[in-house]
């Protein structure tokens, strides 16, 4: 009676044979992946799956066919070499299958990237086409911006305060100069909220100073 391990070995051998004889890359990759799962699940190695063939019993000679000599049994060294050779062959097959799977994945990724780039290009072209079609209509239907009264009327620059006008032909009198200076000082002091007593004191001091200079 076959144990679970023997059944797993037979299943893996069947999957490996199916992967080798597959008609396309997808079938080979699927069979190879299933074989790897069985080997990992049952802790199988390549030596468990690929064992040297046992000696076949001698065939019964017939009258029409020549008698075949039974194969010579292999020694331990020969069996070891045969096992190593088969193991190398299987590793080579596994590498080839892995390379096929990697190539298939690379092609699939490249195909997906190309399709994505094509979709983005078509989307950009569609957006550009819609913008070209909608731009004239939007320009016609776009309402004019409402301008306020301040925007309609031309803004006049602020008129600077006029300086005291003195005639070129006639020099300004000293009294006018004093009044002008006193008025300026008074305005400055009033704007800064200085008490009237202090303003009067400063004006008196300034008048005395001007009289003393004369």
Automatic annotation (TrEMBL):
Compositionally biased region (Basic and acidic residues): 75-92
Keyword terms: Membrane, Transmembrane, Transmembrane helix
Any Pfam family the entry gives: DUF2786
Xref: InterPro entries: DUF2786
Residues spanning the membrane: 194-212
Chain residue ranges for the region called Disordered: 49-92, 122-173
Name assigned to this protein: DUF2786 domain-containing protein
Annotated DUF2786 domain residues: 7-45
Domain of life: Bacteria
């Amino acid at each position: 009676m076959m144990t679970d391990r023997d059944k797993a070995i037979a299943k893996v051998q069947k999957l490996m044979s199916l992967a080798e004889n597959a008609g396309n890359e997808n079938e080979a990759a699927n069979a190879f992946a299933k074989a790897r799962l069985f080997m990992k699940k049952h802790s199988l190695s390549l030596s468990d799956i690929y064992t040297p063939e046992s000696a076949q019993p001698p065939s019964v000679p017939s009258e029409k066919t020549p008698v075949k000599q039974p194969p010579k049994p292999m020694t331990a060294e020969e069996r070891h070499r045969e096992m190593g050779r088969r193991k190398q062959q299987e590793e080579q097959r596994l590498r080839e299958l892995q390379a096929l799977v990697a190539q298939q994945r690379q092609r699939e990724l490249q195909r997906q990237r190309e399709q994505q780039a094509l979709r983005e290009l078509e989307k950009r072209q569609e957006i550009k086409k819609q913008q070209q079609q909608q731009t004239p209509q939007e320009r016609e239907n776009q309402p004019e911006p409402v301008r306020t009264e301040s925007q309609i009327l031309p803004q006049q620059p602020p008129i600077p305060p006029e300086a005291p006008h003195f005639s070129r032909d006639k020099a300004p009198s000293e009294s006018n100069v004093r009044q002008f200076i006193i008025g300026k000082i008074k305005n400055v002091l009033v704007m800064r909220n200085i008490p009237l007593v202090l303003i009067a004191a400063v004006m008196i001091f300034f008048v005395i100073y001007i009289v003393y200079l004369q």
